[in-house]
Amino acid sequence: MRTMEERPLVVGVDGSEPSLRAVDWAADEAVVRGVPLRLVYACLWERYEDAALAHEIGTPDARALPQDLVGAAVDRARARQPGLKVSADVVFEEPEYTLVREARQASALVVGSRGRSGLAEMLLGSVSLSVAAHADCPVIVLRGNHDKRATPPGGGRVVVGVGEDAKGSAVVRFAFEEARRRGAVLEAVRAWRCPAHETTDHPLLADAPARLHREQAEEALTQALHDAPPDVKVERRTVEGHPRRVLVEAAQGADLLVVGAKRRNGHLGLQLGRVTHAALHHANCPVAVVPHQT
Q1: Looking at domain 9-142, what is its CATH homologous superfamily?
Q2: 144's torsion region: left (phi>0), alpha (psi -120 to 50) or beta?
Q3: What pTM does this model have?
């Protein structure tokens, strides 16, 4: 079995513009992580038609074989990061099944926000959503205008949503490592709300319930960040509001948003909470979904 240092960063490719941008981003990320890059094409079709792809690989018409598509993506990754170890594979089956299987031996998996479905840019493709919901490794969905750069010049900002029982969690550990690799500031965000039934009209007690919830949020952040590496600059924020809105707003202008996805043994449905689901559909930056067992 491969160690984590030997496990490749896997990126799903399908010839669409989002997937080609994902190849660029993943090549940078693989170098930052010090791991090989593995490109995987999975589709039931034996030919792919697209004028943009034909231009990319230099064919005279819009028809291309999967091997042509993958070869162009490999060339693109090597041109972007000379010296990067790149491998590729073509599999004729449903992309969801292939990528979830690949995730078992990957350090992380990268997918574009949508593929060839023709959906609007703001919507998340079904393949990306399914993979994020079932993969055993972290899945990075390239939302928003990431400029094809995993590590923008001058550092940046990684945002992590801190939920319940976050101390020592895989989600927070992943966020620590991503911030360290990028030389970025880690912004840990905890949302809190004061239920309407806890409010009071008494002038001396009006702020008491809200203050209690705010203090609990601050304590949750303290616990979650207890083991923060000394070489990672951490900023902490508690924000009143629904977690879905708070995280999407916090992600504005970030290089990466890190959220969790609970995995329940024997559960076959989409294993994404409402907050993670909202982040995948509405964040304007890449979103890393980190699985953890409940």
Answers
A1: HUPs (3.40.50.620)
A2: left
A3: 0.84
